[in-house]
Amino acid sequence: MEMSGLRKVDPVKHEQKRGEILGAAIRCFIRDGFRGASTTDICTEAGISPGHLYHYFPSKVAIIEAMIDLGLARSAEKFEKILTAPDVIEALLVDIEETSLRFRPAQILNLDGLAEAARNPEFAEIIERHTRAVRRMWSDFLRQAQDRGRVDPGLDPDATANILIALVDGSRAMPIRDPKLDIKQSVEHLRTMLVRFLNPPDAQSAAIKPRIQKTGRPLKLVRKR
């Protein structure tokens, strides 16, 4: 029997509206925190009614999970791009600078998410799921980079992934701890850390070997009298 009375959903417009609501939710979370931002706030920011919201997301938790899934998808694309770069470690460093040291929204959401997870068991489960997915992506990225001779094959990918996740989290905390942080200097120190930690031994030696400055004139021998 034909259900002519039911309205057909345009999948393209549906996804577009979901994206708009997610954007509004992210702005609310940045402004008021995961705990402080309510579904009413999100509806107001998105310009929709609460009843309209539930056509797209059944709850605030569903919005947060969708936001995390979107971030994971973007991270997967990012890792694929970094793997194709001429210098994997330099590309990784550029990404950390852009998405951690200089990107205020990521700094706020990251720290607030960890704080909320420490006091909210339901939110803690979301963060744990997200962390497991991120760790898998880091581990896969490192294994592929090792197979291509771009990362030290002696490193354990899973253990290294944990260290790099901590480094990214720390990079996002640095500008909040010190608003006057010298980001350029911090990037240079991060470059030294990543080169020494990740580069294969042969490439590492070449990368940190002191450069011998050439002078325009040969050295003169001093004769003893």
Automatic annotation (TrEMBL):
The keyword Ribosomal protein does not apply. The keyword DNA-binding applies. Residues 15-75 form the HTH tetR-type domain. It comes from the Bacteria. One of its GO terms (molecular function) is transcription cis-regulatory region binding. Keywords: DNA-binding, Repressor, Transcription, Transcription regulation. It holds the Pfam family TetR_C_6. Residues 38-57 bind DNA. PANTHER family: HTH-TYPE TRANSCRIPTIONAL REGULATOR PKSA (PTHR30055:SF226), HTH-TYPE TRANSCRIPTIONAL REGULATOR RUTR (PTHR30055). This is TetR family transcriptional regulator.
